Amino acid sequence: MQARLPALLVNGRSRFVLQFTLPAFAAVIVMAIVLGGMVLLVGRKADQLAIEQQQQLLATVLQQKIENTAHDQEGITVWDDAVRHATAAKPDLVWLDMNVGSWMHTYYGHDEAFVVLPRSKPVYGMRGGHLVPSSEYDRHVASIADPLIAKLRTSMLRQATPANEQSLSLGAIDLGVVGSRPAIVSAKPIVSDSGKLVQTPGNEPVHIAVRYLDGDFVKELAQSYALQAAHFASERPVDGQSSVPLRNAEGQILGYLAWQPFSPGTLLIDRLLPLSALALLLVSCVLIVLLRHIRRSTLALEASEAQAQHLAFHDTLTGLPNRTMFDDRLAHELANARETGDALALHYLDLDGFKNVNDTLGHPAGDELIRAVSARLQKAVRSSDLVARLGGDEFAIIQRTISSPAEAEILCLRLLELINEPFSIAGTQARVGVSVGIAFGPADADDRAELARKADIALYEAKAAGKGRFVFFAEGMDATIRHRKQIEADLGAALDAGNQLEVYYQPLYSPDEGCITGAEALLRWHHPEQGMISPALFVPIAEQSGQIVKIGEWVLEQVCKDALTWTIGSVSVNVSAVQLRRPDFAERALMILDRNGYPAERLEIEVTETSFIENAAGCEANLARLRASGVKVALDDFGTGYSSFSHLRALSVDRLKIDRSFVSGIGSANDGSPIISAIMDLARASGLKVTAEGVETIEQRRFLSGVGCNSLQGFLMAMPMPVAEMNDALLRGTQPA
Predict the structure, then answer these.
(1) pTM for this structure?
(2) Which residue ranges does UniProt annotate as crossing the membrane (predicted)?
(3) Nearest 10 degrees: Cα torsion 302, 304, 309, 313
């Protein structure tokens, strides 16, 4: 019995093996086959889904790129200056190349550009950022561009404005073959942005933009959307590559954008089949892992598409909606307001002092500050409102469904308070302010572009009024803006004319002897229609437009010529903070002095105390370079700004100029004598010379002489005069009796 037991156990184990192992093994094989079939099916489905998603994504992106080509052109085709230069009797090719040709290549990547006049007459051509003969148009592009121009001119005759509110002008665009290469060809009319230039509909100059689809364009797509082996193919690929056809407006296929598709299903099959011989558990585990991998890959594709959509409508630095999304949302909210009778407030915001932070702490700190400002703006608004970044340090807020302007005012007060609080940036505290312009829809305008324009005008007024405030749009502002723009345009014409601007000189006198010790150069503008225009009007406009740089160099050049032979101590020239912030200001000023043989020690530059203190970081290097060369520095309007001994010790200056507001108060109810005495004590302690300006009475002269002023300036001694009269005054040597 004991001998038979092991045999029975062995036989029983064998039967168990036969009864359970073989069926289990067969079940594993069957399940492996079933799973293998499922894997093949799922793999093919995953490959198909991935390819379809990539094709849909690329088709959408390609369409956006085509539309963006026309949108890019609007920056230079809706422009008065472009109309003038393109239609001139002799077109300025250099100007056209810099502004409508090479600039488009550098900034937007356009490969070719042409300007075509009526009757298909090309006047300008660019290829690859270089000027080419306009005849290249007929040889290279005309076969595609001429039909587009004809279509565009027909549209211009039938329709004054584009149906798409996102566009500024009508256009015609198509795909075609240019020189055997597929390309986007877009035609846009060159039209007036102000509406002041008269143009015959259908006879406008036309800007032709060409962007090839088989070069850098494909590389950009491949880098942006992780396309492998992306290229242009004239024939449809048949070797397993995915493709999107490029069709023109007539449906003709010009070629294909091809790439090696991402195939998660194939990856699944390649990895799983070698493991199918393993146990069911291992197969199941691997299957689960790979299915999760498929899910992640699919989600990654979906996330890539979502990211592309997000980037198209959001600012990359802050994550806020960008201008495209802002425009769309504003149009939607205005349409809703028209239907429901609700009101909305559009706030345009611009940071005050951001450039100073950017220049002082660097661009990374500037980016950090922009992100911090964005976070505070989002905290200030309701969840139903929209905060957008329009670019640089400009933001916009759409405040929905407000019941009264008071709600907009409350929000503005909150914004001013939040932004005025210091920011912790780059290990230090930075301070900026904010100016806000507000327009109400649909009360001020029920059109998106018009409402935005009026909010921008209100912002301009807030900036002009001293910054750090908010201003509601009022109808009178339109006229003010037009007047300022006219002044800006006329000032540019005055610089070109060469006979409207003139430098006057007001002498400085010693308080005792009455002899001339120096002079201040003062700019005057003889407008051909409006007569003499006050510097208080046109100088701030020149500073805001940047024209002050060219004007300042012209004034310095003129002073060097006028005063070269004068025997007085020095001539002072007013310099704005805009000029001083330019890194090359000192070197350019010294070049002008050297060119005219004018000694640096006989030049004194005047800068107002407030503007210098607020822009010290950007000005100090220039002032140090000028003083090292012998140029003197004076603080103008002293006493109206900081007037601090600690500031004086930190500033490299040679002279203080007491503001006329204190001089006029000498001997009156608002006696400025104690303040002047305090300034004199401060100057003596600092070793500085002092000039009093605005002296108009004998009593003022006696007092200023008594407290030790070094020089006097004012109508009592002499008014500002042209150079010829200044020469006569120097011959007399003393002030008139």
Answers:
(1) 0.48
(2) 20-42, 272-291
(3) 140
